[in-house]
Amino acid sequence: MILDSLDAWGLYFKGSVWDEALAFVRGLSVSSEEKKYFLRENDLYAIVVSYGTHGRDKAILETHRKYIDVHITISGKEKLAWVPKKVCVIKTPYDESKDAEFYDTAVVPLSEMVMKPGLFAAFYPDDAHTPQLFAETQSEKIKKVVLKIAWAAAG
Description:
The protein has 155 residues and is mainly beta. The chain is built from two helices and twelve strands; from the N terminus they run E-H-H-E-E-E-E-E-E-E-E-E-E-E.
C-alpha cells in the first residue's frame, strides 16, 4: 500500500501506463462525468463515482488479483482502511469476473487514512482495503476516481 501526494507520483510509478493514468487524473474535475473510462483496453481503466460515506458497520473489505487499485479523491473526504491480506478471513471467495475477494470486517485495520483531493492511495493484490468510510463522524458526499491498473502492465 502506498499513500502520498499526487505530486510524488513519479517517485513510485514509472512507465507509460502510469504516465497515462496520471495525465487522465490531472484532467478530471468535480464536473467530470461519472462512468467507466477505458484508457488502455484491459491494462488501464478508471471509474469516476460519487457516493456518501458510511460507518464501519457497512464496511466492505476487499482485495483484487488482476488490478492495482489507485483511489484518488476529487472532492470531499473519505477514510480508507488497510490491512494485510494474510491476516484476513475470507467471507466471499475470489470471483474472477469481478476481480474481487471479500473478507470478514471484524479484522481491525492496521492503518486508516483520510483521503482528500491531492492524495492517492495505491492498493496491491496483498492489500485488503475498505473504502467509503466516514472521514469525520457523519456521512459526506465525495467524488473520486479509482484507477484500475493491470498488475501485468504495471511494470
